[in-house]
């Protein structure tokens, strides 16, 4: 996996794969290395199912409202 990609800060052009809102969470899947981007709402909604499958879980939700 590309460590640079995983650690890159999410920005306004990164959009939630579920709804298109700004993404604050990046999930890199262990099995494929593919990535999923989520807004805070959809990250929370899918976290229980995705955490066991994730190689990395980059959570930048603390940036919301700043």
TrEMBL record:
<dbReference type="Pfam" id="PF24254">
    <property type="entry name" value="DUF7455"/>
</dbReference>
<feature type="domain" description="DUF7455">
    <location>
        <begin position="10"/>
        <end position="64"/>
    </location>
</feature>
<dbReference type="InterPro" id="IPR055878">
    <property type="entry name" value="DUF7455"/>
</dbReference>
<protein>
    <recommendedName>
        <fullName>DUF7455 domain-containing protein</fullName>
    </recommendedName>
</protein>
């Amino acid at each position: 996996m590309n460590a640079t990609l995983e650690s890159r800060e999410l920005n306004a052009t990164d959009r939630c794969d579920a709804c298109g809102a700004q993404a604050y969470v990046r999930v890199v899947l262990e099995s494929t290395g593919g990535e999923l981007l989520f807004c805070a709402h959809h990250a929370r909604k899918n976290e229980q199912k995705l955490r066991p499958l994730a190689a990395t879980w980059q959570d930048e939700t603390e940036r919301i409202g700043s």
